[in-house]
What does this fold into?
Amino acid sequence: MNDKTFVIVGASLAGAKAAAELRERGFDGGVVLIGTETELPYERPPLSKDYLRGESEAEGTRVHEERFYRDQEIELRLGTTATAIDTARGGLQLDGGEQLRFDALLLTSGSSPRRLQLPGAELDGIHYLRTIADSDAIRARFERGGHLVVIGGGWIGSEVAASARQRGVEVTMVSDEILPNARVFGQEVGEFYRDLHAGHGVELVLGDGAAAFEGEGSVAGVRTASGRVVECDFVVVGAGATPNVELGQRAGLDTDNGILVDQRLQSSAPNVFAAGDVANHWHPFYEQRVRVEHWANALNQGPAAARSMLGDRAAYEELPYFFSDQYDAGMEYSGLHSPSDEVVFRGDRAGGEFMAFWLRDGVVTAGMNVNVWDVNEHVQTLIRSRKQVDGAALTDPGTALESLV
Ligand SMILES: Cc1cc2nc3c(=O)[nH]c(=O)nc-3n(C[C@H](O)[C@H](O)[C@H](O)COP(=O)(O)OP(=O)(O)OC[C@H]3O[C@@H](n4cnc5c(N)ncnc54)[C@H](O)[C@@H]3O)c2cc1C
It folds into this structure.
């Protein structure tokens, strides 16, 4: 039996998958998984989709059932927050004062919603969405009906708006962007999502960000930068997220938009690793740092970090990938583009079945597929090939993607 102890801080997707991987690889020392939340580790994507709409229950979001942790002898410490790390001695302090010893530590502390510091921010009825409790509170508001203002036209704001409409709630989306997601994904993709929401009855107030919340005790309206007041019964803010770096930062780890980790997910302290939303990773394919706040990254990076803790030298090289579901539009995106890349389309944008490709010097940097399936692998192969592709063939739905590599 191994006398080593590996400790993981952050009992969510990346952390739970890392713990499972340690056992899968035959590590039979101590594995401790520590999490502030009191629920068993769960996945967050349903919280803005089926779970929020009341179409599924909490059990369906769990990464593993309780029995799994017991059977695998993974010590789950829920409702427990790690407060300090001593990297030199391999010590971790927990709230309540307990000290744990570790041989290697993995930080999967995730990210937190960016809070709007606007006048009226303290009013009741202003929601953020990160945890199952947040989703429960919004779900309960949906049941009471009324008028929701969603602030932000990013993925979370858009999915909440879609779920609210599906539950019959009146929705106004307020965003400082001129189109949903346009800053990163460009005008055409933004127009598609604008029309999708408008077609489902969302009122869109775009290019005019929230400047203040109005109301007495509870929020009753959102005042925009131009002075317009949108009356409402409740608000959901989707203004992005920030990585939970404080614990690592206090321990002296190098941080910059996340905990800086090398290609093996090792931090500036050799016995500390990081994965998931909190990790700003040196990506060997891009030869630059990449921090990805998406499900697949937590799913894959957690286990990769566990393998590195066990001494594996392999680099983490998965390409960024994410998905979003809004109404009947399912979307996947792979790669990493820059807003200055050229964007071209294949398929029927007006009919909502299309692909978008971003190109730099004729090389595909990213691809998005909307209601087109089983193409993601080909998109990733195209990106990895770094080959110039024929634009006409790329945009022709009659040309098989795999023939372009
Ligand atoms: C509503 C919602 C919908 C989403 N939908 C999609 C989607 O459709 N597609 C997609 O690709 N991605 C989606 N995502 C993103 C995806 O869920 C995240 O990328 C993923 O949850 C990141 O997992 P993680 O394990 O890195 O961190 P997190 O899930 O953020 O978990 C980190 C955990 O660490 C705990 N923690 C932090 N500090 C400490 C400490 N000091 N001590 C103990 N515990 C600590 C936190 O309480 C938290 O439980 C969505 C996210 C949200 C919130």
Summary: Residues 9-15, 34-37, 44-45, 47-48, 81-82, 108-111, 129-130, 156, 244, 247, 276-277, 293-296, 298, 322-324 surround flavin-adenine dinucleotide (CB under 6 Å). The mean pLDDT is 97. The two ends are 48 Å apart (CA to CA). The longest strand covers residues 353-360.
